[in-house]
Amino acid sequence: LTNSQRNDASLKMLLNEQTHLSPAARMQKIKDFSDRLLKNKLLQRELSNWNMKIDPNMLEVTGKILPSEKLIFGDDCMIDVGEDGDWAVAFREKNLFKPARLEDWVVVTPEMYSFEAKKFIAEMMKSTRNFHLSDPRWIEIEDPTPEGYSFHMEKAIIDFNPQLMMVVVQGRRPEIFTRVMKKCYVENTVPCQVITDKCFTYDETEPIATKVAIQLNCKIGGSPWSIHIPVSGLMVVGIDAYQDSTKRNTYF
């Protein structure tokens, strides 16, 4: 898909109708496909040469239906995510389970995206509910190169010692992303959030702004929601792996 197609809300809705199917609809699609194969005489002859055939009925197995999960938001508000497991609306309507306070933070953006970035931050502030988000310090750079980002970020860290740094980049620029991550997490200890200019191109930026605000809350110690875990004394550890795009079969 082209960028214009990805940003077309009507096209995305039509695609979702075909790709986000219920189990019953997905089964019917498979059954229709199987029926077409069974009616194809040439295919049936080819399968018979291999002593194979297609069963007209799908295999049935006994499965367990798990109860839908319940999420706990702020003010002890509990919601049932339902059968589809979608709680996107609750993002914007409920208070965060553990809100943080972002008092001192910096936004580093190319000068050409300054206007769009400020509109996006304003949208974030409207969507944060009980997550306190102060006005950021703005650093507009004329040279959006890896070296330019590195210089201005280092200066901002020395001058302001921010709680968090948000960096706006143009498109997917792995060389800039790598430099930003190294500056914040290797050379310093400053939480960082990178967003691309694509965030500014959507017709409705509120859902994107809400998700970014929730990410900021998490990165400075907050929690968006919680769940009830009936097992005590249990720790679940997730390990993320990063694959270097410039070196095949190299993981970190």
Automatic annotation (TrEMBL):
The UniProt GO MF terms for this protein read: nucleic acid binding
Q: What domain of life? A: Eukaryota
What region holds the Piwi domain?
Answer: 164-252
Q: Report the protein name in the record.
A: Piwi domain-containing protein
| Originating species | Bracon brevicornis
